[in-house]
């Protein structure tokens, strides 16, 4: 993914696409920061898994969405436009979100496997759900659906 990102940065430089270039450089920095944080004490470069890369991209996109909300509340339309442009670039690197039907089916399977039947079992469901869905769906959305299903 980092190699692809480097190529995309070069393409953005050639095209003089400042928004894309700024966004991709920011993303590459976030990915490199994550890669450094994941190193084991040996100093060896470790490749990030696809899930880890997607998690970083989602985090960057979420930050842009939160910024858009805050800037909109503050009446800073110029900054809202900037953040929306960057969000559009990040969205290109994210897979299509899971449909509600597919997400509900996955959570139903996990509830059935764990034998969860009430809100007291929420932790037993959330662990496997997040490990299965990490990088594909926002954790808050998963939590909301699990709560709805366990409440009845």
Please, could you describe this protein's structure?
The chain is an all-alpha fold. The chain has seven helices and no strands. It has helices at 2-15, 18-37, 50-73, 77-91, 100-114, 122-133, 139-151. The radius of gyration is 19 Å and the shape is globular. The model has no long low-confidence stretch (mean pLDDT 89).
Proportion of residues in helical segments: over 70%
Poorly predicted residue ranges: none
Structural class: mainly alpha
Q: Counting H and I runs of at least 4 residues, what is the number of helices? A: 7
Cα(first) to Cα(last) distance is: 42 Å
Rough shape? globular
How many strands in all? Answer: 0
Order of helices and strands: HHHHHHH
Oligomer: single chain
Largest sheet features? none
Radius of gyration: 19 Å
Mean pLDDT: 89
Share in β-strands? under 5%
Q: Care to give the gist of this entry?
A:
This protein has seven helices and no strands. It has 152 residues and is an all-alpha fold.
Any descriptors?
mainly alpha, 152 residues
How does the SSE layout of this entry go?
Layout: H1 2-15, H2 18-37, H3 50-73, H4 77-91, H5 100-114, H6 122-133, H7 139-151
